[in-house]
Amino acid sequence: MNTAFSNSIDQFLERTDILNADEDVLIFFKGFPLDFYESIEHTGIKHFTNNWDGQYPDIRKIKGTDYLSPLISAHGQVWGFYEELIALADILSDFSAFPGKIVVVDNNLFHYYYPIPCLSPQKDVEECFNNETIKQPDSYISQFYSDYKVDGDILLLSYVNKHYEVDVNLRIEELDFYDTHIIDAYNVRNECCIDITISSLVHTKYLLQDGRLEEGKYRILGDATTDLNNEICVMNVLGSFYNIVFGISETEMQKREETEECHLDLLKKYWGKDAEFRNNKFYTHPDVSNETVDISQGIIIADIIKQCLDAKKNDTQYSDIIVTAPTGAGKSVFFQIPAIYLHERETDKPLTIVLSPLIALMKDQVLELQERGIEYATYINSTISYKERMRRLDGIKDGEYSIVYLSPELLLSSDISTLIGERKIGLMVIDEAHLVTSWGRDFRVDYWFLGDHIERIRRGTSRSSQQTSTFPMLCLTATAVYGGRDDVINDLQGSLHLTCYSGHMYIGYVRRDNIIFDIRQVNTKNKDKEEKLQLTTAAVCKYVKKHQKTIVYFPYKSQIEDVLTNITDKYPDIATKVTRYYSSDMESAERDKSYDSFKDSDATVMLATKAFGMGINISDVENIYHYAPTGALADYVQEIGRAARKLKVGYAITDYLGSDMNYARTLWGLSGLRHYQIKAIINKLCSIYEEKKHRNLLVSPDTFSYLFDTESVDLKLKSGLMLLSTDLLNKYHFKVITVRSKNLFSKQYIIVPNEIEEQFLERYGRYCEMMQDCMPDQQYSYGKAGDCIITKTGNVFEIDLGEIWENDFSNETFAQFKYNFFNGKLFDYGKHKIVPNMKLTINYNPGYDKIELRFKEVCRAIQDTFNDIKRLFGGRRFTMKDFSSLFNKRFDPKIKQEYLKLLLELFCFDHVETYNNPSEPWKFIEKKRGEAGKNINIIESMYSIKTQRYSYISNNLKKYFWQAKPNMKDGIHYVTYLTVPKPGTQVSYQQLMASILQLFGLATYEYEGGKNPQIFVRINDPRKLMKMRSDNYNYKNGILSDIENRHKRAVRIMNSFMINKYSNDERWDIIENYFLGHDTIVDSKLETNKVKRNDVEIDITNGVEYDGSDYHTIWDSIVASFTSNDNEIKLSTELVKRSDEFNNHERPVSGDVSIDGQSLDCNCDLIWVKSRVMYFMADEDKEIPYYNIPGWTCFFGADPNLTVDRILNAIEVIE
């Protein structure tokens, strides 16, 4: 028997007093080794079946039905394996059948991944979680575990957590086994200890738990963060039974004088004999002060190289590195010199992989390196042919290339071994790393996938046979917020799974003291749009006449066109010196020409959207003028930072109107997701799972086209899936769904004309499989026009596009190949065209006939509602609220407004030029986009009926329904093949039908093929997802709520920054404090948090935002800090126990409060801002001077009369 476990179990039982409980208690232990359970049996607590065989359960044989009777009949204090709880939860959705209390005890020595004695072979585990095939049966492993990691020779598994109320309809208490408050981590500096690296911490814990760690003192090298301190405390609890003590010794910066010049020879070799490393300002201790120090590029380069070399040694601590510095500070040299060092001075020539979002920048940097004589740099992206790609990949594998630029999409879609073979990675560089932040203006969803993917490569769990690969990551970005509520650096570390110690984090100086602000507050009687047009036109004319090189930033491209048209009409001579730049509707060649014209000073003024940003390095820009702010303060600072790179002085100029932030609000609102869309994604995933009957799914973005705009459906779906995945991980502490981006195309569908079918198949038949197609078909017309018969020109084939590209079109770039295929130009058969198609499947389960009656009711309600609107409004504008109110009078049950919005927009024109654009015959409503109001996520659009087509809608929908009746043998599925729509072309009536049926829950549909590549989704806990889809489950995505709150705060900060008068130094003070996370100072300067209530001004400074967490987490976090006051202890216990009762109420924030400028003497621990409620934690004898704040309800923790019900009743319920 393991005495350490016996003693720690005794400690646990004494601490929790479970043995003295007055009720039956069933304890499920989670994540422990076998000898732990043997020690439990010796305490007298028996397994709840009273029949344990002394072995760890074999998950291949576990059946929930075997445990049902023992669960109901269990008495006293008994225990079980967590695997047994999972098996029970899979057959029993309500655990109240057990009359006593159920507790889950977590092995908190490990963090969500446990080295449990799983009887399944490791190769079976790896196959289960790395397998992305969608037709194999689900593995038995996936019933119990959701993911795995490998640490050396240790396999760690993450459970499918099933003890939440959503799983078992019961509040199950969760306890940590080891008490982190017993033994603290002590600080070690010069003591004689055994050093442990952070990377070997899991292995150390494993040996400690197994009783195989040598006794003695151990020193862990790392930053003394709260998380690491807690880990060491837990290790010390177990270590105390083995005479083992763990301490922490913070890493120190290397001695700079020894490293500054050591790699200068490489710089001089390739950059010229006169080249020298530049000095840049960095903050010495950004956590606590604004002090700076000049640091040479050489010091940072030496640090990066040292981390690369240390990572090659398995027993040496190494760190990831973060560098923030403005464009023009020479960030590329930070990885280019280390890459040169690794290739030229290390015998195995480790690879440097540079992930960059900009294709043009990759090419430019590689060409620049080659011009310097560095021939071993290359890039791989969609601009090179397949043949050239394979040549470069062979060069990488053979050692010809060692500096490789890749797009994130390519890395994500590839097995790492297909890219690099047996080569080792020496350094992974993430350029423009701020794109990871999900709430940022320039967020790229593929960057969000990078963290998990790179971790799988480092841990040896990528889709390859490659073993663990240790290498540091270098994250480079321009100025990014460090700390505070808008912390980008912390987001980076979390999303990319970085281990970056403070000594290897270089936070660049934010201030640009040579940029002068000229912000003019404008009061106008004119319409804002007209005033902005005139002000901007006048400013542009002034800068051209004075030959001042200027970038003018606009929120919308339409504003650029308005200003350019106005200048061209009124001042044609000025217009010749003005150019423009934006991303959409502007060809890349035109953008390049515009960029070159401005860079070479042929044009004096550049009119641009935010697209004129990353990779732009023009040093002689004098002015940055804002038509209106395009985003948050961080975006504004990035944009004005493009002035005066090499000039003595630059200017940041704005003519600011009070309504200017509405543009940024509208941009955020248009690009953002909604909670109902994420809930709809859950519903759709469940439908596909029910249809496919397995957990591995390949979903086409077009399947979700009823939720999102067609043009953005791919990015919106990826964003929605990642928001969902991350939020569920935060809530349930395991991957409820796993999402992986797949960016290459494989299976597509085509129609081959009969006349050329034999000829086509002779050449391409090995890639093709004929599909069953039920055409010819009758096409019903809309309104009074006659019906017609549609007959396809040939048979439908499934074709493997990837194989064709590799074998038959290898000289084409992937971008060219894709364009030619979807535009009918890939295969040349003269007048006979090979037409790409999409496969649409509508699933009418539980039956077409049962659905028909309900569908007719839907048609009638739609028709009657449009009749009502025509009668009440004629051709005048109406709102979504008008439509929703009228529809719900006609249809029962009531439909949520967000779904009715999706319904209404099915009948809207895509453009406002109603009569000039081709449009589907059922579209008769013109939509005019509104602007954001106070709530940035509500953009009120206006609608109006423009044609008489509305009068035919019911009859034609019923015709379409009949047309789309099941045509497969099972009598449930309707399958058709539709031409892949081009932008601006009509969609089919089948797509309309599929969307309406899905919106009303009458049927489901799925697309295969099309322009958007599929996305891999594995549902690790289908039952949890199924319960979350129900109308009774009020799911709100915590990540999305946080994004919404950040955007609201961004508007307040930016508006205050613009409307208040500050000196130049004061503005840079505000900016600097914002970027260093000093929110209290920023809020105080900008007065963003002051609210008036009953003539008392209250300033709330939020410290930690809890919105998005469940209330159990909130109370757990707060009550851990409560005083020893008896009433607070009693209250805290009750708060945690009744936490679920709060979940429909407003979420609190925590922070400091001042009233009329005077700070309170004690901390306000919880603030419900909307409800005007505060909770104060204080000692009994401490008086609160503002206990009765006018307009606010204040609760005092030590108040003996305070109850949970009083708090509940004071907080607003959120509808």
Automatic annotation (TrEMBL):
The Gene Ontology biological process annotation of the record reads: DNA recombination; DNA repair
Domain named Helicase C-terminal is located at 539-686
Q: Report keywords, A-Z.
A: ATP-binding, Helicase, Hydrolase, Nucleotide-binding
Q: Does the keyword Hydrolase apply?
A: yes
Instruction: Tell me the protein's name.
Output: ATP-dependent DNA helicase RecQ
Keyword field contains ATP-binding: yes
Task: Supply the InterPro entries for this chain.
Answer: DEAD/DEAH_box_helicase_dom (IPR011545), Helicase_ATP-bd (IPR014001), Helicase_C-like (IPR001650), P-loop_NTPase (IPR027417)
- A single GO cellular-component term on record: chromosome
PROSITE patterns assigned to the protein according to its UniProt record, in alphabetical order: HELICASE_ATP_BIND_1 (PS51192), HELICASE_CTER (PS51194)
Q: Name one GO molecular function term.
A: 3'-5' DNA helicase activity
List the source organism.
Aminicella lysinilytica
